[in-house]
Design goal:
By secondary structure, the chain is α/β, with parallel strands linked by helices. The protein is built from 14 helices and 24 strands. Strand 16 and strand 17 form a beta hairpin. The longest helix is centred in the middle third of the chain and has 14 residues. It is globular. The structure holds uridine-diphosphate-N-acetylglucosamine.
C-alpha cells in the first residue's frame, strides 16, 4: 500500500494548477445515462473515483472513451471524456461497486427516468456519519416512482414513466438535489424542487442538462423549476474548477508561509472560505489567471467557524481548517453542522502534537506555535481528513509518514507532484 512521506518546514512558492471538480465531474458523468447521444466532458480530473465511476457506467452500457493527449496540452490540463449511453444494458448497480463510492448511488434517478426501473445497492463511501438516503427516495416517490427496499438494495419502478411534481427537500442535500434534477428533466410535465442545494456543482450539472436540451430555471437558487422533456441530446460541457482543492492548497500555502498562484481557481466558488482565511491574516488576491495566496512572515489569527451548505463554509474544508488552526495564535472554534462523526482526523492530528478538544459537534483548536507540530506516523481515514494530515505535515518539524493514501487518490489529483513543484518535501513511497 502506498504511503506519503513529508519532511515539513518548507515554505511553498510557485504555481499550482487547480483541477476540475470531482464533485461536479461525478454527477456530470452520471447524466450521460439520460441520453442515447454522446456527452463530451472536458476538464475531468484524473482521480480514482472518476475511474471507478467510468467502470460502473460501463456496466450499465455506457461507452466511455478518454481522448488522447493533444499536442501542446499539459499534464495539468484535464481529460476529455466521451460518454455514450446508446442503450442501457443493465439497470442494476451492484453492492461491490456502490459500496466503494457513495456518489454512484446517484445512477438511481437517471436509470428510473430513462428505463422505468432500477435496482441500486445502498451506498458506502467515506465513513463520516450515517449518511442516509431517505431524501433521495422520497424525492423519487414524489415524482411517481414506486420504491421498495430489499436485501440492501433499492428497487425502484416507474413503469409509465415519472411525472412532474412539487418536490420538497426537508434538508439541504447535494446528492438528493442531483437526483431530483436528473429525474425531473425526463419526467412528464413540470416540477418544482424546493429546498434545493445551491452548491456550484449542482449549478454545473443544471447548466450541462440545459445544454442537453433540459428546461430548468432558478439555477443557483434553492427553488429549481423544471419542464420535463421526452428526450435529451448530446452536448459538450467543461467541468468547473475544484473549490475544495482550491481551499486546500490555499491552506497549505497559509500554513507554511510563502506565496502560491492557484491557477484556474475561481474566488466566487468559495467566498466564505476565502473570507475566513483573510480573517486569519492570509493575503488573497484575484488575478486574471487564478488566485494568489500569500502569507509572508505574519502570524495566523484564530477563527470561529461553522460548516454550512453553500454559500457557507464547506464541510469538505473543515478538516483542513482545523490543521491550519493548529498553527494559529490562540484558540479557534470549529463547529461541524453537516455530518456527525466527521472529526476522525482529530486523533491523527494529535499524533503530530495538535491540541484539539472535541465538545460535541465543535472542535476547540489551540495553536501550538512554530515548532509545536512534530512529524509522526499517521493514517488517512477519509478523503478530506487525509489531506488535513498533509497540511499539518507540511508545517511539522521532521518526517510525517501517512498511510492508507488511497483515500487521497479518490479526490486529489497528483497532490505530491503539485506540492513538490512548489518546494515541499513530499514523496509517494510505493509498497
Ligand atoms: C456531497 C459531496 C460531499 C460533501 C457533501 C456536503 C459529492 C460527491 N459529495 O455529498 O463531498 O461533503 O455533499 O456538502 O458531491 N442526508 C440525509 N438524507 C439523505 C441525504 C443526505 O439526511 O437522503 C444528510 C446527510 O447525512 C448530511 C446532509 O444531508 O448530513 C448533507 O449530505 P449531502 O449534501 O446529501 O451529501 P452528499 O451529496 O452525499
Amino acid at each position: 500500500m502506498d504511503r506519503i512521506r513529508i519532511v515539513g518546514g518548507e515554505r511553498l512558492y510557485g504555481t499550482i494548477p487547480i483541477s476540475g471538480a470531482k464533485n461536479a465531474a461525478l454527477p456530470l458523468m452520471i447524466a450521460s445515462l439520460l441520453t442515447r447521444e454522446t456527452l463530451t466532458l472536458k476538464n475531468v480530473p484524473r482521480l480514482a473515483d472518476v475511474n471507478l465511476l467510468a467502470r460502473i457506467l460501463g456496466n450499465h452500457g455506457v461507452d466511455v472513451t478518454i481522448a488522447g493527449k493533444r499536442t501542446g496540452q499539459r499534464h495539468s490540463d484535464g481529460q476529455t471524456f466521451r460518454l455514450t449511453a446508446e442503450e442501457i444494458v443493465d439497470t442494476t448497480a451492484p453492492y461491490e461497486m456502490v459500496a466503494r463510492m457513495r456518489a454512484s448511488f446517484w445512477v438511481l434517478a437517471p436509470l428510473i427516468a430513462r428505463c422505468g426501473r432500477a435496482k441500486v445497492s445502498l451506498p458506502g463511501g467515506c465513513a463520516i456519519g450515517t449518511r442516509p438516503v431517505d431524501l433521495h427516495l422520497t424525492t423519487l416517490q414524489q415524482l411517481g416512482a414506486e420504491i421498495e427496499l430489499e436485501g440492501g438494495y433499492v428497487l425502484a419502478r416507474a413503469p409509465r414513466g415519472l411525472t412532474g411534481a412539487k418536490v420538497e427537500l426537508s434538508k439541504v442535500s447535494v446528492g438528493a438535489t442531483h437526483n431530483a434534477l436528473m429525474a425531473a428533466v425526463l419526467a412528464r410535465g413540470e416540477s418544482l424542487i424546493e429546498g434545493a442545494a445551491r452548491e456550484p456543482e449542482v449549478a454545473d450539472l443544471a447548466s450541462c442538462l440545459i445544454k442537453m436540451g433540459a428546461r430548468i430555471e432558478g439555477v443557483g437558487t434553492s427553488a429549481l423549476w423544471v419542464q420535463g422533456r421526452e428526450t435529451l441530446y448530446g452536448a459538450e460541457h467543461t467541468v468547473l474548477p475544484d473549490r475544495i482543492e482550491t481551499g486546500t492548497y490555499a491552506m497549505a500555502a497559509a500554513i507554511t508561509g510563502g506565496e502560491v498562484l492557484l491557477e484556474g481557481a475561481r474566488a466566487d466558488l468559495l467566498e466564505e472560505a476565502l473570507q475566513t482565511l483573510r480573517s486569519t491574516g492570509v493575503e488573497i488576491e484575484e488575478r486574471p489567471t487564478g488566485l494568489r495566496v500569500a502569507r509572508n512572515g505574519g502570524g495566523l489569527g484564530p477563527v470561529s467557524v461553522e460548516t454550512q451548505p453553500f454559500p457557507g463554509f464547506p464541510t469538505d474544508l473543515q478538516a483542513q481548517l482545523i490543521a491550519l488552526m493548529c498553527m494559529a495564535n490562540g484558540t479557534s472554534q470549529i463547529r461541524e453542522t453537516i455530518f456527525e462523526n466527521r472529526f476522525m482526523h482529530v486523533q491523527e492530528l494529535a499524533r503530530l502534537g495538535a491540541r484539539i478538544e472535541l465538545k460535541g459537534d465543535t472542535a476547540l483548536v489551540t495553536g501550538v506555535g512554530a515548532g509545536g507540530l512534530r512529524g509522526a506516523q499517521v493514517m488517512a481515514t477519509d478523503l478530506r481528513a487525509s489531506v488535513s494530515l498533509i497540511i499539518a505535515g507540511l508545517a511539522a518539524q521532521g518526517e510525517t509518514m501517512i498511510g492508507r493514501v488511497y483515500h487521497l487518490d479518490r479526490g486529489f489529483e497528483r497532490i505530491e507532484e503539485k506540492l513538490s513543484q512548489c518546494g515541499a518535501h513530499i514523496e509517494r513511497l510505493s509498497a
